[in-house]
Structure formats: structure tokens, C-alpha cells
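Hi R.,

Here's the chain you asked about this morning:
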Amino acid sequence: MRRDMELIRKILIDTANGLDNYRLYIGRSADADVNQVRNDEKLFYHIKIMAQKNLLNFKVIEDYGGICSVYDVELTWDGQDYLSTIEDDTIWNKTKGIAKEKGLEIAKVSFDVLKNLAMQQSKQMLGIE
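And the predicted structure, written out as C-alpha cells:
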């Protein structure tokens, strides 16, 4: 599965705004349709890779009926730092625009390059560079 930087940004913003739990359908579940399961699996994958990058912490309870509860989701220092870099829509759109001008999809730009590019946009807006 390819990472979705828009979804990562949304999860960070939602977490900062107080959304700290998710009830997800993972795998086969009689309670959810195929699209719901696919979307929930994508969301869970992104939460896990965000934790690997130290953007957030969470706890999880998985049952064997296909339901997964992700709770106590909270931003780490690194997550707060990254969010402060990309939260502003103008900066985010400029960052994506620069990647697109270079012929790159945002998902194919490394996390660190994307963060540095967004920081550069912030500095330009503040007149620092």
C-alpha cells in the first residue's frame, strides 16, 4: 500500500482537534461492506506507519470479528512539529504545487524532503528566506 500524504495530514489535524479513537473494520467483517473495510484498512495502515515515524502514539484492541478499536491517539513532539509545518492550507498547497511542477506525485516525495519543502515555504511566507 502506498502512503497517502493527504490522509496523513488529515489524521494529524483530526488528532490535534481531539479525535482520539477510531472503530475500524479490518479483514472480513459481516458488519461492513468491502469499501468500508478497504478504507478502514488504509486508515489503520497509515496510523501504524505514522507511529513508526514517531508522529503519533496509540493503543489498539483487535478482536477476531474484524473490528479494531484504535484509541488514545495522541500527537508526539515530532507529530506536533510536522503538523505545524503543513497545517496551513496555503503552505500545504504550495508544497504540493512545487512537487507537481517537478513532475512528482506527493506520495512519491520522501517524508523528510516534503517536511523541508514545507518549512521552506513557511520561511518564505515569513520573509526569513
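Helices lie at 5-16, 34-52, 77-86, 89-101, 111-126.

Let me know if you need anything else.
M.
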